[in-house]
Amino acid sequence: MTSAFISPNRLGALFVISLLWLVASVAHAGQAAIVVDATTGRVLGQVNADEQNYPASLTKMMTLYLTFRELKAGRLTLEDNLPVSRWAANREPSKLGLRAGKTISVQDCILAMVTKSANDAATVAAESIGGSEAGFADMMNAQAALLGMSGTHFDNASGLPDPNNVSTARDLLTLAMALYRDFPQYSHYFSTREFTFEGRVVRGHNHLMERYEGMDGLKTGYIAASGFNLASTAVRDGHRLFAVVLGGRTAAKRDRLMASLLDAGFEQSAAADALAAAGQPATGVAHRVLAALSPIANAEADPAPTSSPRRAKHHGKTTTARRSTHRARHHSVKLADRTTKRSAAAEGDD
Questions:
Q1: Catalytic site residue from 117, 150, 167, 232
Q2: Given 29, 63, 212, 324, which is the most exposed site by the fewest CB atoms within 10 A?
Q3: What is the DSSP letter of 58?
């Protein structure tokens, strides 16, 4: 046994602490989480990863994906100035405060989406690329299908409250990984903590990135119907992990869970490396821990999400059944969104 070996008991304790927090917390939306070692392709742990939830501003990861695609194809440049429509200017906060009839550069749109989670900037990009936000949503859904995001449907570019804007933790992790895989030349934007726009400093909402060693992106999100969401990536000792947490009751609890999941993931990856070096099989600790937390399902050592479309059936539920579940959930949260409109409108302001 090498000195780098992490005991299975310690790994198990880490996962128990992290995952029991997720299961035991009572929030106004379903909780879900998944963590993957992108270096090896191992799913280290997952909870409710295929259940549909509201993605909130994690939606903007797809808006950014399509923006990067336009840049890579040469149909846009970072210096291009995009027109601000009245529809875009009137989007609810979080926003930059763009004015109808003015313009904003593509680069500032990107930075505004990544840091402030600006809904007006996301709509500007959507209208410029898709002709209208509805047309852009069609492009989002087409790209989601290509990436194999079979539990996802987008209805707007920002993630503002909409019953037809749904996704899963697994799908959002697939999207996060695709951003870094397909557009490495633009991935540095996700580590931006602040930028200057029209003479004022615009600061980001991803406060965990400021204090978690190795974290260099991705995106926060919040509406009343979803709770506090976060997609993250971090790299240590040659391993890059991606993780998604949905449905946190508070931003602080969500951030603590994300940090615990990443810590456990890095320790499990280190243990697997040590065992491989010693010629021994991996311990499968995450699988055993998650299996004990019935009714949570886990597929530790599953391959990481790829671009191959998955079947529309998850854990015995058909797509129709999952949509019925989603409609029932939406009915129960619709009044909450109406009565907390001001809070829900502060998308990403966490």
A1: 117
A2: 324
A3: G
CATH homologous superfamily of domain 8-345? DD-peptidase/beta-lactamase superfamily (3.40.710.10)
As a whole number of angstroms, the distance between CA 146 and CA 299 comes to 23
pLDDT value for 15: 53
Scan for tokens 């087409």, then name that residue: 142
- Helix (H) and strand (E) counts for the chain? 11, 9
Nearest partner of 63 among 103, 123, 21, 3, judged by Cα = 123
Mean pLDDT of 100-107: 97
- Catalytic residue from among 18, 60, 167, 232: 60
Say whether pLDDT at 292 is over 60. no
**CB-based contact 297:317 (threshold 8 Å):** no
Q: CA separation (Å) from 323 to 29, 143, 314?
A: 15, 21, 12
Q: Cis omega (within 30 of 0) on the bond before 94?
A: yes
Tens digit of each residue's pLDDT (9 = 90 or more) over 221-264: 999 999 999 999 999 988 899 999 999 999 999 999 999 999 99
The residue ranges of every structural domain in the chain are: 8-345
User: Is residue 269 annotated as part of the catalytic site, yes or no?
Assistant: no
Question: Which burial class, exposed, middle or buried, applies to 336 when counting CB atoms under 10 A from its CB (0-12, 13-18, 19+)?
Answer: middle
Amino acid occupying residue 143: Q
How far is CA 253 from each of CA 108, 173, 175, 260, rounded to the nearest angstrom?
30, 20, 24, 11
* Helix (H), strand (E), coil (C) string for 156-191: CCCCCCCCCCEECHHHHHHHHHHHHHHCHHHHHHHH
Q: The whole model's pTM is what?
A: 0.78
- Whether residue 200 has pLDDT greater than 50: yes
Indicate the range of 28-32, 59-63, 253-257 predicted with least confidence.
28-32
Q: Taking phi first (over 0 means left), then psi (-120 to 50 degrees means alpha), and beta for anything else, what does residue 81 get?
A: beta
pLDDT value, residue 40: 85
Q: What are the tokens at 336? A: 């909450």
Determine whether 60 is an active site residue: yes
**Per-residue model confidence (pLDDT) at position 42:** 87
Instruction: Please say if 187 is a catalytic residue.
Output: no
> What is the H or E stretch that residue 130 is in?
helix 119-130
The pLDDT assigned to 333 comes to 38
**What is the rounded CA–CA span in Å between residue 328 and residue 302?**
31
